[in-house]
Amino acid sequence: MLSLFRSIFKGNETSGRYPKRLVDEAIERAVDSTDPWLRGLSGYRRELRPAVLTAIDHVVTLVDGLAPVRPATRDGYAHDPLLQAMFLSSGQMMQLLHELLQAHAVVGGAACALLMMDLEQRGIFGADLHGDTLVRDVPQVTVSFANHRLLDPCKTESKTRRLLKRRAFDHLLSLALHRMATTKKIRKDLDNRHALLQAKLDILRSGNWGFDPGTPQPPDMLADLEKQLADNEAQLQRVGTDDRSLEVAMQLLIDVLGRPQQHLWADHKLLAVDRMGIKHATAGDAAPELQLEELHDTEGHSVVVTLVTIEP
Known about the structure:
Helices cover 46% and strands 24% of the residues. The protein contains 10 helices and 7 strands. Strands 1, 2, 3, 4, 5, 6 and 7 form a 7-stranded mixed sheet that branches. A hairpin with a 4-residue loop joins strand 6 and strand 7. The two termini are 38 Å apart.
């Protein structure tokens, strides 16, 4: 079994042109990450290859298309309305980001990481000026950012983007695995197998696999998770499966990897927000326009993301 917490990307991939090693490893990773019994299907590599190539294209384009890195520094904060909206102050920003870095065991030196947050918009009644008149109980919307977390902090931007490509590919695989674990055609008369597939998904997610919310795990914990995965794989091999359920599982995997843009995608949202966090209909000096990058998936998850550099 491939180590599912290590990257298959090396950082020199160009959309549409990939070394054979990368494609072969991605195919095997797709099988290892979902259902290893798929190897029992004749020509499984040939059948998976087109969908895997499409998925690789998608994740490379997705990650390479992320906006340039923004400096999460005191000076960067002072000139960046988006950082000002995401954090209460430069001091709070730097303290929180360094605490998050320590959780990843990245200490000292500058680091690049993907900052991921939940966007919260709430309706309230507040006060507003209409001309020179203060009007109360005006319907307003507050904008705030919560549950800040860092993904794949590294010393260089190129390495962070490489790990994010692996994470995006793995997130697609987690969506396919979730479908396998919940599809009735596979669950019928295979309750033990369903439980094992679900357990595998839980183990991977507890290792902060994909873009699902999770706590970064130290190396010794990852080693324990990999041992749990190995035990889980051994049980799956003993349970076995029939050809029909394998065919269903293969089609579920091909559907996700062959149409990745329908399962994991990015878009942009424009918001005009003032320093009090109040949303405005139009942008202005008091409410600059914020361009947010969001990631979405078919399970209904939606997060705001931005690449940042964090200095000591």
